Inverse folding.
């Protein structure tokens, strides 16, 4: 029997929509038996009463198409039948994870919660120490705020100054539901956009809280002296980004992250000056120490002299950012790593949704094997650039060999594949769609740079369009090609001058004359350490904030929301919620670091470091990191399938074993030793990578940044499986990544209706 | 490209350093300078030589961590770039490149090309902030309109990445451009004006204590600054300092 | 005058120690004393140039300057103080700057980002200072000797002859010219730069820079011209 059926529904405007109806059993709702269905509305209509033979023909072809889609869906379902069957069986044993979301209606939860949680009195805060690891937006803002409240804060960063954290590189802006533009923005709308953007894989209550405090962030930053862009009236300016209907993004040119981080850093400086924060630069967290089930301190390595140190505290906050560098090449900083998050995972913190990674479509392509990192070009470029590859594979080949120039390829021989596939959104389709489409073309052999992994982003037609507009406005000759070109270039320069300049510096080509080359790159990781509503991990007293936790972005992050989440966690959420836990610790007194738990942790760290430097291997640390990156990118990158993921798991495991056998780490432990620091980080990536692949394998649906080839429509669009996967995968460490145990936190949507994303 | 590299090697802050010469071949002009250094280090590790330590992180010119003095110039021969944004196409096949750490008494060498710039942090801790506590009740962000010109100037000053190229390049190892950028940012904004007097006095005082040299207005810092921070900021700080002294 | 007044008020208002111990205070001293010396230089030049066209006028002004009690007992000490302040502070700053970079660069290409003159003020300053020594030896010491040691009778007409007499030796004229080349270099950077030091950098700065450049060329050339004029005559 066919499970997918086609249904038609007459609309009021003379068209009929086509729906695919996938029936999968019955369930009991409110005591009644109801059919369980997944309904998919196809992105084209029938004409209800065809008037001409042409219209009739169109209808016929569309019905045919609908049948084809239904059939494909049916097929994809069957090939997965067994897997899903097992899945459903396993779903029945869902481990109850307590996310501690407070009672009440979603919009009131945070206010109620704040009113009820325990507080620590000012006099007692002096008796409590808090460790913060990482000084990006989340870590810096949390350190400063906790110190302002009166806690004794010890903050750690591996860079030479807290200001270097990679939040500094964020370009676009920060969202806030201020509605200064009066265009109908509200807390609800921001909340809704974030949930929807996250493809319905984030926790409602957390996201609502994020939207609520977003406005406070802007107030706070302005009060700190953050120079946001302003209009001529002296008020704050906003811009909009693709995908949302309002202008709610606050920005400071292309350096918003820098300005916000320096703001938080300045607040930290004030507290360092007052002695409330003790800052440890060039210190790397090596492990967490757990005493009687509670996080009570960390072991660090002083990167200057290699000294291993013990630091005790009543709570530990991990704000160490994302793990995009597991791909080796990413837009993350060279030092960005997962180690702090991974170390706490190995001591009991669940790691959530590791496979949710965001791949940014407009980065500068890899130029060769020497490449160490990728540079992001702002998303805004897609507003005016048209993306294409040659239509003929011979042309692509000739371009790669340097025999043909892109400007010599005529219009009809170009394939504007985004405009072709997504006529409605064209070049402005969401990040994941644009990225996958680029990969698809390059895999098919149409890539345009030496490595065959690049597509063109062409401004020629925008330049001419703007030029003609300007000529018209200025009353000049619109047919003078040279003049039009010049005028158009000026407009483009005013809009994207700094980006074009950056591109020219890196690639050494003039993007005004020849099309830019772009390729997708790993950019942000939505997954991270699992936290409850209070941002506490599954280790009591250990918190995770910012990109390091998994919380607010679901399966896909909206543009300009990362900065918002980091600062919300650090300024306005953690400082409240941590008090609830610490209120039990007012009589604990200083944490003694001369106890067996600390000794043991220190000894383990030391022996691992010694093992690295005494290993007489033959390959450098980077050799392994590159190899890992290649496996991750090829098999766990933009699109994933069961076969490749299984191979990836095997290969990563082998690579890890080889790493421990054959890695060559020069120098000593007790000195400044970059290679040693790197070795520790790569060792953790080698474990995380495996869990990443395992998680991707487990999640057989496609959603957000995670695309499973088995779960797609006939047109190659992502197909979500809300029935089986509306949950957070929280992995518990059981001695090895392969043995990790999956816990599922069921996501309930009480406030927002779950819908399909569509951009056709 | 084949290159000869003359690199400053110094095991730690207590030892004396010296220039060592290395040959490197097959350098692609598309490499960034730091990627060339990565290749060199891979080769050194293979040969059993201690790799060259250098600071770097974001590799897109914004974190301010990379810090080499290349062929007599901070961040090398290109303008408005950091070392990580400098590409090897700026050099010719057969060139000899001298690479030294940023040198100043206030920037002691940690190892090889890595220096300690925590003096910059301490200057900021002396007053580079607005004393406002975090609270959900700060006044609305639009309560005080700010002249766009001032806001833009404040932003331009605030783009400083704290790399220390100004100090490294100044013949006097003066930190005036760095300090003045921060002082200017706050002096131009109403939020920062409240504490302006104490801020400039304390920050300049700390700057002097750290052992930076004096400004002699050569203007080299402005030229070598990867973010193009203007000398106007130094003038503004001088002014602020004088008025603050008169007031205090 | 006004500048001196400004400087004195500042000295009074500022805690003097802060002023001479802070880097910006020292810059201020350099700038104000420098500007004051520029005013003096202008006045000196204005008097000297009269020797080219009127012996009588030159003698008259010189006599006034040499015997007016206000000039002699108020302005002259201020001038001496100004000169001493300028070069002592210059030395102190240079010393501090020298020690701000203990290990020097093996390769340092200052010329790529700053003009030679701005980086070598100490050199041009030293040449000018040595010249000042010579100048004192030539004019000021005999003058003091004449007036206050030997207490010779007033002679309102002696100045012009003394001047001409000094410019008879080609060696001296050569040294004189050379020194003024260095003074020109010193002024070229110092004049405009002093405005930056007192915090004046705005839309007028470009004009000030041009005026300063013209000044730093014209005035030293003028002095050299006077020397050659008398030497050749």
């Amino acid at each position: 029997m066919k499970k997918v059926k086609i249904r038609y529904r007459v609309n009021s405007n003379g068209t009929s929509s086509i729906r695919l109806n996938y029936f999968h059993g019955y369930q009991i709702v409110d005591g009644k038996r109801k059919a369980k269905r997944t309904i998919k509305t196809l992105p084209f209509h029938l004409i209800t009463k065809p008037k001409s033979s042409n219209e009739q023909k169109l209808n016929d072809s569309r019905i045919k198409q609908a049948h084809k889609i239904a059939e494909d869906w049916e097929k994809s379902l069957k090939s997965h039948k067994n897997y899903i069957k097992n899945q459903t069986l396993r779903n029945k044993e869902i481990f109850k994870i307590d996310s501690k979301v407070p009672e009440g209606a979603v919009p009131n939860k945070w206010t109620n919660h704040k009113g009820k949680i325990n507080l620590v009195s000012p006099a007692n805060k002096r008796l409590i120490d808090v460790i913060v690891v990482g000084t990006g937006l989340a870590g810096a803002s949390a350190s400063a705020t906790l110190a302002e409240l009166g806690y004794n804060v010890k903050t750690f960063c591996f860079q030479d100054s807290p200001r270097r954290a990679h939040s500094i590189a964020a370009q676009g802006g920060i969202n806030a539901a201020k509605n200064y533009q009066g265009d109908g923005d509200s807390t609800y709308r921001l909340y809704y956009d974030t949930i929807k953007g996250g493809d319905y894989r984030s926790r409602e209550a957390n996201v609502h809280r994020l939207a609520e405090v977003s406005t406070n962030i802007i107030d706070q930053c302005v009060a700190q002296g953050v120079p946001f862009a302003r209009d001529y009236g002296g008020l704050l300016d906003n811009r909009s980004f693709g995908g949302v209907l309002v202008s709610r993004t606050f920005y400071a040119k292309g350096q918003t992250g820098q300005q916000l981080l320096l703001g938080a850093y300045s607040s930290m400086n004030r507290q360092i000056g007052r002695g409330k924060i003790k800052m440890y630069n060039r210190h790397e967290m090596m492990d967490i120490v757990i005493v009687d089930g509670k996080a009570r301190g960390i072991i660090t390595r002083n990167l200057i002299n290699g000294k291993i140190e013990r630091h005790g505290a009543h709570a530990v906050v991990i704000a160490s950012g994302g793990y995009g560098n597991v791909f080796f090449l990413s837009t993350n900083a060279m030092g960005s790593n997962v180690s702090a998050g991974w170390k706490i995972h190995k001591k009991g913190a669940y790691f959530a949704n590791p496979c949710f990674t965001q791949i940014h479509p407009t980065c500068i392509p890899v130029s060769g094997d020497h490449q160490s990192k990728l540079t992001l070009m702002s998303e805004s470029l897609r507003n005016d650039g048209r993306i294409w590859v040659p239509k003929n594979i011979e042309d692509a080949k000739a371009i790669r060999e340097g025999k043909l120039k892109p400007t010599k390829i005529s219009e009809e021989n170009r394939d504007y594949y985004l405009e072709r596939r997504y006529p409605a959104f064209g070049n402005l389709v969401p990040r994941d769609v644009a990225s996958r489409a680029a990969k698809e073309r390059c895999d098919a052999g149409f890539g345009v740079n030496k490595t065959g992994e690049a597509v063109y982003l062409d401004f020629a037609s925008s330049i001419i369009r703007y030029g003609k507009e300007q000529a018209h406005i200025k009353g000049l000759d619109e047919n003078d090609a040279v003049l039009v070109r010049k005028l158009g270039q000026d407009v483009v320069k005013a809009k994207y001058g700094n980006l074009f300049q950056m591109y020219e510096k890196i690639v050494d080509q003039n993007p005004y004359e020849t099309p830019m080359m772009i390729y997708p790159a790993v950019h942000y990781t939505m997954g991270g350490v699992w936290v409850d509503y209070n941002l506490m991990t599954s280790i009591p007293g250990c918190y995770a904030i910012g990109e390091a936790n998994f919380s607010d972005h679901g399966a896909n992050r909206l543009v300009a929301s990362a900065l918002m989440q980091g600062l919300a966690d650090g300024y306005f959420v953690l400082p409240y919620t941590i008090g609830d836990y610490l209120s039990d610790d007012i009589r604990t007194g200083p944490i003694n670091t001369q106890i067996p738990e600390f000794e043991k942790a220190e000894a383990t760290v030391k022996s691992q470091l010694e093992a690295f430097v005494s290993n007489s291997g033959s390959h450098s640390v980077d050799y392994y990191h590159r190899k890992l990156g290649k496996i991750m990118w090829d098999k766990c990158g933009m699109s994933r399938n069961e076969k490749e993921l299984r191979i990836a798991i095997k290969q990563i495991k082998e690579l890890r074993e080889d790493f421990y056998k054959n890695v060559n780490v020069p120098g000593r432990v007790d000195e400044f030793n970059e290679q040693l620091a790197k070795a520790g980080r790569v060792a953790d990536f080698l474990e995380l990578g495996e869990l990443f692949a395992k998680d991707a394998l487990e999640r057989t649906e496609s959603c957000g940044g995670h695309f499973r080839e088995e779960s797609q429509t006939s047109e190659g669009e992502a197909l979500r499986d809300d029935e089986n996967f509306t949950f957070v995968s929280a992995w518990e460490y059981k001695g090895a990544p392969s043995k990790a145990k999956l816990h599922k936190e069921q996501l309930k949507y009480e406030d927002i209706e779950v819908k399909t994303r569509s951009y056709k | 490209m084949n290159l000869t590299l003359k690199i400053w090697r110094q095991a730690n802050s207590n030892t004396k350093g010296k220039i060592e010469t290395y040959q490197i071949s097959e350098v692609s002009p598309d490499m960034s300078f730091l990627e060339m250094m990565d290749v060199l280090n891979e080769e050194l590790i293979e040969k059993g030589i201690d790799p060259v330590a250098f600071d770097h992180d974001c590799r897109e010119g914004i974190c301010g961590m990379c810090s080499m003095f290349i062929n007599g110039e901070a961040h090398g021969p290109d303008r408005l770039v950091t070392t990580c944004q400098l590409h090897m196409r700026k050099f010719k096949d057969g060139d000899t490149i001298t690479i030294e750490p940023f040198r100043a008494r206030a920037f002691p060498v940690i190892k090889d090309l890595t220096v300690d710039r925590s003096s910059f942090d301490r200057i900021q801790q002396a007053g580079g902030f607005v004393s406002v506590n975090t609270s959900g009740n700060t006044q609305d962000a639009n309560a005080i309109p700010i002249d766009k010109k001032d806001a833009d100037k404040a932003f331009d000053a605030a783009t400083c990445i704290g790399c220390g190229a100004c100090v490294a390049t100044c013949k006097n190892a003066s930190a005036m451009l760095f300090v003045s950028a921060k002082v200017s940012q706050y002096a131009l904004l109403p939020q920062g004006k409240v504490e302006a007097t104490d801020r400039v006095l304390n920050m300049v005082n700390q700057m002097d204590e750290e052992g930076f040299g004096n400004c002699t207005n050569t203007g080299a810092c402005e030229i070598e600054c990867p973010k193009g921070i203007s000398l106007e900021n130094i003038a503004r700080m001088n002014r602020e300092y004088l008025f603050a002294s008169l007031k205090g | 005058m006004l500048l001196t007044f400004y400087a004195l008020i500042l000295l009074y208002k500022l805690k003097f120690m802060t002023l001479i111990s802070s880097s910006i205070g020292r810059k201020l001293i350099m700038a104000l004393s420098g500007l004051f010396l520029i005013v003096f230089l202008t006045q000196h030049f204005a008097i000297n140039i009269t020797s080219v066209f009127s012996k009588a006028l030159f003698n008259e002004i010189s006599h006034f300057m040499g015997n007016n009690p206000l000039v002699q007992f108020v302005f002259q000490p201020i001038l001496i103080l100004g000169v001493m302040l300028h070069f002592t502070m210059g030395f102190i700053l240079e010393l501090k700057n020298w020690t701000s970079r203990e290990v020097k660069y093996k390769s340092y290409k200052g010329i790529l980002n700053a003009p030679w003159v701005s980086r070598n003020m100490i050199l041009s300053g030293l040449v000018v200072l040595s010249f000042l020594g010579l100048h004192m030896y030539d004019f000021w010491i005999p003058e003091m000797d004449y007036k206050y040691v030997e207490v010779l009778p007033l002679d309102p007409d002696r100045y012009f002859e003394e001047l001409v007499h000094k410019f008879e030796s080609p060696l001296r004229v050569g040294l004189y010219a050379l020194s003024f080349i260095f003074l020109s270099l010193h002024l070229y950077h110092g004049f405009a730069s002093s405005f930056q030091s007192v915090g004046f950098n705005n839309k007028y700065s470009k004009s000030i820079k041009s005026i300063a450049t013209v000044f730093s060329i014209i005035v030293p050339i003028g002095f050299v011209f006077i020397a050659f004029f008398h030497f050749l005559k």
Q: What stands out?
A: Chain B has a mean pLDDT of 95. Chain B touches chain C through 50 residues (CB under 8 Å).
